[in-house]
């Protein structure tokens, strides 16, 4: 599992093609909502969960997938981009895992991500 406390996650940028990395993990009734990628790692939002992908090793052929179900979310917080701080942030608190934090590049529709989480977690 990804160590969210000690792992520095690079800023994520929208990349719909990144969703292909998790297609084998999806349930029959699960749909990808959006996907984001940093240098190698990424995160995919579905209608049931958040899937964090940690690409490992020199060749990148080894991957760690962490499934974060919306049903375990107890709270979440978003920080929109501003004039000088153009990055957006999402902090999600899970009942058994604790806090998970994602940083997104400027221009990311963080409020849209918030609406998706609210629709499935509340």
TrEMBL record:
Origin superkingdom: Bacteria
Database matches in InterPro entries: PHb, PHb_sf
Residues spanning the membrane: none
Domain Bacterial Pleckstrin homology: 14-120
Gene3D superfamilies, per database record: Bacterial Pleckstrin homology domain
CDD domains referenced in this protein's UniProt entry, alphabetically: PH-like_bacteria
UniProt protein name: PH domain-containing protein
